[in-house]
Amino acid sequence: MRIKLTNTRREALGLNLGLLGVVLRWVLETGMRGGGAPDFFYREAQRLGYVARSAFKLLQIQNKYKLITPGSSVLDLGCAPGAWLQVACQSLGPLKNGGAVVGIDLKNVKVPSPYCDSRVQTVCADVMKLPRQQVRDLSTQKGFSVILSDMCPLVSGITTKDAALSMELGMRALNLAVGGAAAAQPDDDIQGDNQIDVMGSDMDDTGVLRPGGHLVIKLLESEDVQELTSICKPLFRKTSLLRPKATRSSSREIYLICQGLH
User: Fold this and answer.
1) Alpha carbons 218 and 169: distance in angstroms, whole number
2) How many CB atoms within 10 Å of residue 23?
3) What are the φ/ψ torsions at residue 146 (nearest 5 degrees)?
4) What does pTM read for this prediction?
5) pLDDT tens digit string along 126-158?
6) Which run of H or E residues covers position 59?
7) Helices 223-232 and 159-178 sit at what angle, rounded to 10 degrees?
8) How far from 22 is each of 57, 176, 248, CA to CA, in Å?
């Protein structure tokens, strides 16, 4: 029996097989050496032309959840140094498929040439202060179908402080995505002085994530992760937590995957 593959399926198959090859090499190398995963993914990123090892985190997320599809409009929050821009554009498929990727970061980020094309642009701005309407205007589709937040605070080494700052960034990503819908979700575990400000100072009540869209948020593991998950659950069709294989063993980072905005 012969199966005819479309160009889109060939692109997806190529991504999946490429990631599978990387994972198999990782298993063999770490199995023989009893460790060394961070060095392995760093070397693989260099070998394959990614600007950072973090590319493999999004590759695993994309391989597992298929969030980015041809024609998607993708927003990458905290896009430096550009590895997620590369994977996002790669996941869009050929240029003729359309779609767009917009990256925002405090730093000026040059669009990496490997894997990126004219569909990718970057903006230097503070996500914490950027009004939702201004973010929405960056999309040609009046909103985004996928929002990726790889934002992380400068780690101080003080666990509670770092977790709180990470949660603040995560809540800002959710606030941008769904607007006032986040504030409408009750959470009995968050009260008084510990109440999380999900609205901020942005008076625009409409989120920039389109209905049916997906949201990925990086967090540092703490009890706050479950609190944010409980806020997101009523807003999305499905929520999951994932610690990618490319995560350093010393890191407490974890990703909240929210699929299908109601």
Assistant:
1) 9
2) 16
3) -140, 130
4) 0.84
5) 999 999 999 999 998 889 999 999 999 998 989
6) helix 55-65
7) 10
8) 12, 34, 16
Q: What are phi and psi of 28, to 5 degrees?
A: -65, -45
* Both structure tokens of 119: 């569909």
Nearest one of 117, 127, 131 to 149, comparing CA atoms: 127
In sequence order, what are the residues at sequence separation of 6 or more whose Cβ sits closer than 8 angstroms to the Cβ of residue 259?
65, 67, 214, 236, 237, 238, 239, 240
| Type of residue found at 84 | W
Which pLDDT band holds residue 180 (cuts at 50, 70, 90)?
confident
Residue 247: DSSP 8-state: S
Whether 218 sits among the annotated catalytic residues: the reply is yes
Rounded distance between C-alpha atoms, residue 175 and residue 182, angstroms: 7
Buried b (16+ CB within 10 A) or exposed e, 109-133: bebbeebbeebbebbeeebeebebe
Count of positions (residues) in the chain: 262
Which is it for the CA torsion 21, 246, 145, 184, positive or negative? positive
**Contact of 132 with 201, CB cutoff 8 Å:** no
- 54 contacts 150 by C-beta, under 8 angstroms: yes
- Among 129, 218, 233, 238, the active-site one is 218
Place of tokens 């770092």: 162
- Burial class from Cβ neighbours inside 10 Å (0-12, 13-18, 19+) for residue 189 reads exposed
Q: How far apart are CA 206 and CA 221, in angstroms?
A: 29
Measured between alpha carbons, how far is 250 from 229 in angstroms, rounded to an integer? 23
